[in-house]
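Appendix C reproduces, verbatim, an entry submitted by the partner laboratory led by Prof. M.T., so that reviewers can inspect both the input and the predicted structure.
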Amino acid sequence: MTSKEALSAARNSNKRGISAILNFLGEDNTNNKSIEQTVKEYCLLLDFVSKDGIDGSISVKPTQVGLKRGYEECLNNLRQISKKSKSLGKFMWIDIESFEYVQNTISIYLDLFKENSLIGVALQSYLRRSASDLMHLLEEGANVRIVKGAYRQCEENAFQSMSKINSNFSKLTKMLFEDKNRNNIFAIATHDPKLIDNAISLSEKFGTDRKKFEFQLLMGIHNELKEILVKRKLKTSEYIPYGNQWLPYSIRRIRERKRNILLLARSILQP
């Protein structure tokens, strides 16, 4: 999928009452020219999203823009994108990657968050450290997205069974809804109906403003569920990846859940 097709998909999402999250595929980038092109791609993408009046945001992986080369290089590159997003009033998410990059990603995020409140970071429920990370982020008033996680990790660092991963996902979700800092926003990124129903129940229990949270699902997956959420006036977003770096992205999705191979095929082929 090209950037033009991704923007078209974003407009289609908007027509269905769904916001868009655009992600230019890529990770583990160490080539300076490629990193520079990636930064330019995201800045250009933000210009198009703003110019076209698209209800949407972007999502960036730190290793896409130099984290493997160094902390400061990645921070400076993400800062360029963050300044553009802030100037246009568009939200920017920072994806979380494998365990070795988590601490630096959170530190970079908090540095950028001091300059731009329209920025959020993901946490993975399969990592044992995520509850502690979430407590720290909430103390800082951060914007957080909860995902399950799709990178291979050892048992010391990550839960291995889906039941424990889901249990921790529910725990993290509850922490978000219990948080008394109502200035931040947060996202529940899952296709699991039980986890979504749990989040809805928590929102009703704690009387959470529906403008403060959203559900995020991949493009082309569980469209019926998205329609139900929209009809219930629950903010919903589609994660729309594009570009030619599909292989590592696809492998992670399949590792996360074997049946995702069919869902991925549908997502990749859908214009």
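Residues 32-51 form the longest helix (20 residues). Additional entries are available on request from the coordinating office.
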